[in-house]
Design goal:
transmembrane; membrane; mainly alpha; Multidrug efflux MFS transporter; cell membrane
Length: 454
């Protein structure tokens, strides 16, 4: 899906954008940060918006916003206009990603969720892997505006397909917007994401622009939890659904998976560049084996999730990621590249296997009206986890690099990544087993399921 690839495609172009638009590195970072924060603001609203305007209308409107934002970005005349237009893009992208999951899960009605998620989560898995490669190829063949023009045909085709194949639906209710919840949650997400995004700079978490927004965001998040607990289903996001064990376990593991996936995607290309002298495109090409491994395991992981349950598939997947990350804690610039490629294939197999059961199991046993809330919860968990993992590993890497040995610094950072993955492997035991994972979703008119999975 274009929004997921767009964020990683642009990430490799920041140096080029800084040069061509005559902007400092600190300023040009807002091209990515603005997009990320706009997504964070939008995601909490999706459940309410779908309820008010209908799924198909909201999907097409979001795609139009993303399309308009892409065209405007390609026409940007300076760094300020580009940042503003990236925010427009981010609003559309933030709506599309959780909405896609909700629409498909509602259509599936709880049947073959593993197989379905193997398709839905494909862009999520491949975006961080193929995005830098695509971005490098575009920059090598043309100028930076083409990074955004490439979205146009995909968005147009997406609109045509949505009009033809997404069932027409209308508003499902007239619930009032939880304005207090919106004022609490959206700034909370923005504060946490903004603080964590600055942690990779000098002084890490000691920087005022890290701890101040992070602390403010966490305070607002706690306030939202207290507010939403009282409001229950009337809240902007129904946190009472977290009493449903599969969703609570899935949200926790989505956070940890985001940390492991995006944290690893910070370290791997950087290590290729720093220790092996690869450029941005070369580092992206070296990650192709991991993408291949992820593709190879997805279909099997989906079938196994439906057959034997989420718990076993997730534990095995995380264990594979864990074992395939350990070699990087001993690697340096002289490590055989063929060995690294083989390890990356295995790591990709684990990443592809992990994502399917976690994304699928969170919706098991939920009624149709509850699915938008579940989609918002899991999406925010993954987004916050990715920001957290990237920030922590960046700070660890920067601190270790002060010792003057780049190879040792990366090895230490990879040990932290291994620790996060080991914790996720243990937490995967909380996921439900075969019986609960195969249970059908509750019908729309039924009372919300609150059973405890085995």
């Amino acid at each position: 899906m274009a929004p997921l690839f767009d964020s990683t495609i642009v990430s490799v172009a920041l140096h080029t954008l800084s040069h061509d638009l005559h902007a400092s590195v600190e300023t040009i970072q807002w091209v990515s940060t603005g997009y990320l924060l706009a997504m964070g603001v939008t995601v909490p609203l999706i459940g309410w918006l779908q309820n008010r305007v209908g799924g198909r209308r909201l999907w097409m409107a979001s795609l139009v916003v993303f399309l308009v934002g892409s065209v405007l970005c390609s026409l940007a005349w300076d760094v300020t206009s580009l940042i503003v237009f990236r925010v427009v893009q981010g609003i559309g992208a933030g709506a599309m990603m959780p909405l896609l999951t909700t629409l498909l899960m509602q259509a599936a009605g709880g049947r073959s969720v593993g197989k379905l998620m193997s398709i839905v989560s494909l862009p999520t898995a491949l975006g961080p892997i193929l995005g830098p490669i695509i971005g490098g190829l575009i920059l090598g063949a043309g100028s930076w505006p083409w990074l955004f023009w490439v979205n146009v045909p995909f968005a147009v085709v997406g609109l045509v397909l949505a009009w033809r194949f997404i069932p027409a639906d209308g508003p499902t209710g007239r619930a009032r917007l939880d304005a207090v919840g919106l004022v609490l949650l959206s700034p909370a997400v923005v504060g946490v994401l903004f603080g964590l995004s600055n942690a990779s700079r000098t002084d890490g978490f000691a920087r005022p622009d890290v701890w101040a927004p992070l602390a403010a965001g966490l305070v607002l998040l706690v306030a939202f939890v207290l507010w939403a607990t009282r409001r229950r289903e009337a809240a902007l996001v129904d946190l009472a659904l977290l009493r449903h064990r599969p969703l609570a376990a899935a949200a926790t593991l989505m956070f940890l998976m985001g940390a492991a996936l995006y944290g690893g995607m910070l370290l791997l290309p950087l290590s290729f560049q720093e220790l092996r002298g690869a450029d941005a495109l070369g580092a992206g090409l070296l990650l192709i084996p991991q993408g291949v491994g992820s593709l190879l395991s997805r279909s099997l992981a989906g079938r196994l999730t439906d057959r034997i349950g989420a718990r076993t598939v997730a534990i095995v997947g995380f264990a594979i990621v864990l074992l395939a990350t350990i070699p990087f804690a001993f690697a340096d610039g002289s490590t055989n590249p063929w060995w690294i490629g083989l390890v990356l294939v295995v790591r990709g197999l684990g990443l592809g296997a992990v994502m399917i059961p976690i994304m699928a199991v969170g919706f098991v046993g939920l009624a149709r009206p509850e699915m938008p809330h579940a989609s918002t919860i899991t999406r925010l968990s993954q987004q916050l986890g990715g920001a957290f993992g990237t920030a922590v590993l960046a700070v660890v890497l920067a601190g270790a690099a002060a010792g003057g040995d780049p190879a040792a610094a990366f090895q230490q950072a990879f040990w932290w990544a291994i620790g996060i993955t080991a914790f996720a492997t243990a937490m995967a035991a909380l996921l439900p087993g075969r019986q609960s994972a195969a249970a059908p979703a509750a019908p729309a008119q039924a009372e919300p399921a609150r059973t405890t999975a085995s």
